[in-house]
Description:
By secondary structure, this protein is mostly helical. It contains three helices and no strands. It is rod-shaped. The chain has helices spanning 2-32, 36-65, 70-117. Helix content is 92%, strand content 0%.
Amino acid sequence: MNYLELINEYAGLLSLILTSVGSCVFFWLTKTFYTKNEAEKDKIEVHTRLAELENNYKKHDLILNNLPSKEDFHKLALSIESLQGDIKANTIKYNALDGKIEQLITPINMLTEFHIKG
């Protein structure tokens, strides 16, 4: 019966100590861990950031879809080569005209001089 008397005598003190320790632990846990308000704020921030990322993805996807393809670059290269050939052909024609113009400059100068002197 000695144990029962001991428990009876210290039961109030023991319950007071356990309640105090439990209250301290509960207070510490509520201040340390994640609260619902913090969770809501973070949820809003995450949704906002996700929406921004989706918009950026759509913009970049649109840009990437409108880039020229390999075939487009091949066609462009062929067009450039064709233009280079046309430029070379025209250069030959213009050089030939230069020679003819040079041949005409002397008679034109002579005629101009003749008309000026009278």
